[in-house]
Amino acid sequence: xxxxxxxxxxxxxxxxxxxxxxxxxxxxxxxxxxxxxxxxxxxxxxxxxxxxxxxxxxxxxxxxxxxxxxxxxxxxxxxxxxxxxxxxxxxxxxxxxxxxxxxxxxxxxxxxxxxxxxxxxxxxxxxxxxxxxxxxxxxxxxxxxxxxxxxxxxxxxxxxxxxxxxxxxxxxxxxxxxxxxxxxxxxxxxxxxxxxxxxxxxxxxxxxxxxxxxxxxxxxxxxxxxxxxxxxxxxxxxxxxxxxxxxxxxxxxxxxxxxxxxxxxxxxxxxxxxxxxxxxxxxxxxxxxxxxxxxxxxxxxxxxxxxxxxxxxxxxxxxxxxxxxxxxxxxxxxxxxxxxxxxxxxxxxxxxxxxxxxxxxxxxxxxxxxxxxxxxxxxxxxxxxxxxxxxxxxxxxxxxxxxxxxxxxxxxxxxxxx
Amino acid sequence: xxxxxxxxxxxxxxxxxxxxxxxxxxxxxxxxxxxxxxxxxxxxxxxxxxxxxxxxxxxxxxxxxxxxxxxxxxxxxxxxxxxxxxxxxxxxxxxxxxxxxxxxxxxxxxxxxxxxxxxxxxxxxxxxxxxxxxxxxxxxxxxxxxxxxxxxxxxxxxxxxxxxxxxxxxxxxxxxxxxxxxxxxxxxxxxxxxxxxxxxxxxxxxxxxxxxxxxxxxxxxxxxxxxxxxxxxxxxxxxxxxxxxxxxxxxxxxxxxxxxxxxxxxxxxxxxxxxxxxxxxxxxxxxxxxxxxxxxxxx
Lengths: 418, 299
Hints:
Order of helices and strands of chain B: EEEHEEHEHHHEHEHEEHEEEHEH
Mean pLDDT of chain A: 80
Strand content of chain B: 25-35%
CATH superfamily of the largest domain in chain B: P-loop containing nucleotide triphosphate hydrolases
Radius of gyration of chain B: 24 Å
Radius of gyration of chain A: 33 Å
Oligomer: heterodimer
Mean pLDDT of chain B: 87
Helix content of chain B: 25-40%
Order of helices and strands of chain A: HHHEHEHEEHHHHHHHHHHHH
Number of helices of chain A: 17
């Protein structure tokens, strides 16, 4: 055989690695439902993935556990034994025992008598008692072994202070009431009440955190599944069967269904759980915002999905993914920290800027004082942004997918020949 | 010789990558019911041409025709395609992904499953349906890959190096399988580097070099394009053949002569002469091997 035929007999060295163009497929879809098949596969693969199921279960357990802890803590009272070694102290601790539960229902005080200061100190030292209350030349002193429990300290301070002022007032020929006349500072909150603010802060954090985690985990899942198809070259078979636009749409739809579904389960369980806590009366008030949160999450996730799909398509191998998805990871982190730490006017402006608005607007709504048109406008902007991204992503995805010669930059992919 | 109607055809297909024209005005028919072998060296443009036929690569000029009209995505969806770079989802059970790929090409899930299982059993992979692809040997992965092209029953097959990596037995069973499809009238286009294999299997041949088609036709047509040669082995010295009219003697070695026929029928006179001179041990037509033709056309 000649050298020519020998050369022929060799295995093909990838003669396709340079300059491969993207697929050009007719815009009309052959089989309009191809994307639903793709979406269904994305969902099924995930639902049969053990680590995904375990991860979801663990998160649910954490939510339920956190709420259960809240219930237990709020119903919990601790009894503090306070030693008194002088008659005056015994009287004072008696008053404490009587008034403690009206001041703070989690604090209960029990009097322990002690014959001497030394014995009292020893009782605290040996942990037979939690604290030793005694009168000094300048006032009162609460001795504890380590730092005093703050709720207990507050109760002690209030009772001692009121009792002493009462005595002093008597001595001065007036009354405590007369002395305190006009000195109270009442709190009035224009929007909601203290408990509601507390809840909205808590929920704001929970929103931001859930959004962050879901956008990151499902985004990375999407990018990996795109590069898996590219790396294994199964994409070429798929491209021969259906337009790549349908593949992209199916992948985004599948991952969005998974992400929003998981999020809805988390939020639903959390809302049911809240019903068992002190915040139960406030659920109705925030449930509208929760609906908005899910809607914003949906639109925001679709927008981010496009970016993740592009990050996947720019990579040639799984190893490239780390660097191609870096900008998207940064963006998601930016959204999270923006949602948490932006303040004032910046916060208001950012709550309209997609994709940050996907997170900030519902958080602002939790705080209250948001006009009805504000979430609507933010949503319109976000959906418009998502649509633009879908179109841009399709172009890059389509062109980059047939490229197997290593990592691509966004610019290279955009400029590839059709 | 044409074995059937031309169903798939390329006309003037051209694809450039930057300055380089990888495929330049390539036109050839792929008749129904025949195996068309696609040969050429590395970088000759075979894979690029096949990708354009399948629509996974943009076409810069020319067209792909199916059934006498420009091809559509819906037509291609019914084609079976085996790309040069093999790959399936590494971690998904093979039966699931084959059913998925068949569904993408418009097949109903239940029918797809039945057909996929039948094919797996035929390839001896019936008990490995639930295995992920990455656990199969390379040969078995190749089998799974071809099933992906055969379910649902394709109206045309475009196979890039379907025989590479197969042992001789597997090559035969793959060839039998492809013949089942050509018997149904399906056009089959396959590329290969193994010329002897192509010689043995294909009805038609398309030879590419440097982005262009340099020869095409049925194997017989290609062979008959060259001189008609006979090999004569006689008892004595065969040097006398040089003086015969109407033939050109390409080579003489003792009693063996290689004779090219210049005037049809002249070889019969040579045979008569040989018989008159002594015993004739051998007189037969020499059919050129495809590799020889290939060297000629790509030289």
